[in-house]
Fold this sequence. Notes:
Layout: H1 3-25, E1 35-38, E2 41-43, H2 45-61, E3 66-69, E4 73-76, E5 81-88, H3 90-94, E6 101-108, E7 111-119, E8 124-129, E9 134-136, E10 139-140, E11 153-157, H4 164-176, E12 180-182, H5 187-195, E13 201-207, H6 209-221, E14 225-226, H7 234-237, E15 239-244, H8 249-256
Parallel strand pairs: 3-5, 11-12, 11-13
Antiparallel strand pairs: 1-2, 3-4, 5-6, 6-7, 7-8, 8-9, 9-10, 13-15, 14-15
Amino acid sequence: MSALDRRLATATALAEAAGRLALSLQPPPGAPVASLKGAQDWLTEADGAVEGFIARSLAEAFPEDGFQGEETGTGREGALRWVVDPIDGTSNFARGSKRFCVSIGLLDGRTPLLGAIAAPALGEIFAARQGCGATLNGAPIHAAATTDLARAQIECGWSARRPNAGYYALAQGVMDAGAMLRAGGSGALGLADVAAGRIDGYVELHINLWDVAAALVLLAEAGATVSPFTAGAGLTDGNVILAAAPGIAPILSGIAGIPVT
């Protein structure tokens, strides 16, 4: 087993185990059981517990690798860097909803190498390694073959870091093109759904590295078209993201004003 194969196997197993831990700590359905870091930016006790579990496990397995978590920041430096979102979709998680996930990605500088995304309440695990394809529960996945935006379903993620007017314009443009609009509350799972062909595109005007680190390699390996997230200050400050089925990517890129590679 190669060094990257071993890291992917470890990341996948860790994402599943961390997902089980998160599920055991999830509050029942109802009003959110969490604190606010900012506008609709939720934090639960489970976020810290899950991130701590993943950080300790990765440090033990790969002490030479760096680590960055959403809640704790950059804990250590290394030639390779693990980037972790312990619970993506925290607003859903805090309400007892099933749509949340654990995301673990590995980068070499600006290059995503592998990723694992576990959605424990949905019983799903996405995994991918550069050059080796992408899978959902072990079966290969591919971006949709959609070519007509009027037949497409597009998720538009909302971010408090950008003016609402930009989000309104984006949603209006998508709907005016005839596409169905969706908002699922988890950027990582929205991007994974593009990789799996479940939706045709995901657009967000600002998203952070930990939300996309695992999904970027999933998308690339599944044949989706993706904007250059890691360009510029994407690794430190976040960036726009557009991921889409190749057949609709050019027109969606024009609507959103986000160049794609």
